[in-house]
Amino acid sequence: MALAVGIAVTAVGCGKFLDVNESPNQPLVADVKLLLPSAQAATAHVLSNQFGITGGMWAQYWTQNPFSSQYRSQDRYNLQPSTSNNPWAILYAGALQDYKRVIENAGSLNQHAAIAHIMRAYTYQMITDAWGDVPLKDALNEGASLNIPYQSQKVVYDSIFLWLDRGLAILNPSSPNKVGSEDLVFHGDIDQWIRFANTLKLRAYLRISAVDPTRAAAGIQGLEDEPLLTSSAAIQYATSGGNENPLFSEILGLGRTQNLVASSTFLDAMKENNDPRLEQLYTKVTWDGVEDTIVGGLQGDFQNTPDFDYSFPSAATGGLGADNNSALAPVVLISEAESYFLQAEARARGWFTTGSAQTLFNNGITASFEANKIGSEAAAYIASADAAEWPGTLAAQIQAIITQKYFAMNGWQAFEAWTEWRRTGFPDFFDLSVQQRLGGKFPVRLPYPETEANTNGEFANVKHRPNSERLWWDIAD
Question: Three-class SS of residue 135?
Fold first, then answer.
């Protein structure tokens, strides 16, 4: 098992991004202040790069460019176990090991430990939502054993809630043990970390709401009077070498080859609603004599070479290889829009009892327009677009909320968009990839890493599973 033998994470590609340039007299304190940003950057790297690319294609924001070939396996739903080796190692041997060391070595820096508890919960949710049952207990034993048992998703989610509670119990804006700029997400703003932890709990309870509605309802009801995010939690990047957005760094590593192009699945849904966000998310091309239009390909139709160009992801989302501004795209952990949509769902289901679900829904749309720098156009869209109408039944309300959340997550939260589609079945307009090789089914999990099969003696108890096998919480029709 890669994490058990302490493999160094050499592929994170963010070494310069983690330079803190600090030489304090107390090495233990320095270690914690170096480890926290290292761990945060590792989590964000996988979220934007490996998970972001696969999630973006399986959420049908992007498809493979017919004029290149890097992600054909993703478009075929045919990822091999070896493709999971790198993200697994980065998350376990990199991010989780560093969060563990922050917690163990924090000493008086208890606010750093609190953040590490919360980010450990966030990272483990990424891991279990990607692979299902995963190593938990003894997973970070640093070589003590090569036989690391797997825990069920339910047990992993139990731990996620436990770590969030631990972090919240420690967080204290009045603590003299301040966190500074080494915190890449909120730069030491503890009030924001409280909001983040509560919002992450809300997300996690909604994730299990179909498989364990009683627990989800009770947990969400306990959050109603707690502060939630009203701005996005994100890591910012720069254009200097080693500090770029992780998706763009992948593109740079491939010689700026433009593999990702717009999927017609997403474009058709947005065009049907005359959605102005489309022009912020993709580049414009000339098609059929019409200039400044946005054109995408059928999902997975990369063997059909067109005689025109497809639109590319915009630099704002980090996916445009020819534009160095892609380096500046943030990695969003939880967006303001997502926070409002989570609250809207909780209110629609009756688990929040105050406020208006419709108002929260509209707030989510407005926050998405603002994130795309066209906030002034939100009101007109809400008043006119069919997809922005507030329906009268609960089932239709959930569909509207998740569909708008899907629109809002394009480019910045692709993995979460794919995950919410798995949980709810919305949006309901996905098309099977033209080149799919999964027996007419959609992919709903990542393959376990080849390194696990080769080195972890407990892997035989879980075995490689087809990409079409649902996770524990995934019971949507």
Answer: strand
